[in-house]
Amino acid sequence: MRRTFGNLARAISSAVLSSARRQPTSSRGESTTAGRRRYPGDFTGKFTPRYAAKLDGNADPGEVLWAWVPYEDDPSQGKDRPVLAVGERRGWLLCLMLTSKDHDRDAADETRWGRRWMDIGSGPWDRKRRPSEVRLDRMIRIHPDDVRREGAVLDRKTFDEVIGSL
């Protein structure tokens, strides 16, 4: 009996692992991770910034959006967070992540790791209206279908200041 149960358990484990190894695909045939499209990596090329913000249900440059953002050191993992869309390239939104953490306190350490932040103030993307900072040294690609919601329109003056700091 034990032997049969052990064989059954191994067969089930093998089937589960085999199923987990298969990458699900999106409707466009792209590989996804945990139901998400496979992350093509951070954007490093040239792009033309564009301000086209309007809260109309579509993700547009100039808006603060909520989306799943991959971790820098392990793109298969990440978390839901606000991002500022600053442009588009080949079907992807180009975004900068936001945080309510004050990086002025650890500016020397952040600089040592090559991370640059800029204060952008508070807005309706944060329920508590905490001041936010935008990260300037990492351009994240977000597929428009993966945006969870529009958070707010960033005013044009602040958007232009962010672009000028890139």
Please summarize what this structure is:
With about 170 residues, this protein is an alpha+beta fold.
Core attributes:
166 residues; alpha+beta; seven-stranded antiparallel beta sheet; two-stranded antiparallel ribbon
Structural summary, described in words:
- The protein is an alpha+beta fold.
- 22% of the residues lie in helices and 31% in strands.
- It contains three helices and nine strands; from the N terminus they run αβββββαββββα.
- Strands 3, 4, 5, 6, 7, 8 and 9 form a seven-stranded antiparallel sheet that branches. Strands 1-2 form a two-stranded antiparallel sheet.
- A hairpin with a 2-residue loop joins β1 and β2.
Supply Rg: 20 Å
Number of helices: 3
Order of helices and strands: HEEEEEHEEEEH
Largest sheet: 7 strands, antiparallel
Weakly predicted, low-confidence segments: 1-34
Note the beta-strand portion: 25-35%
Return the structural class. alpha+beta
Question: What is the number of strand segments?
Answer: 9
What average pLDDT do the residues reach?
Answer: 81
Topology:
Layout: H1 2-21, E1 32-33, E2 36-37, E3 63-70, E4 78-89, E5 92-99, H2 107-112, E6 117-121, E7 132-135, E8 140-142, E9 147-153, H3 156-165
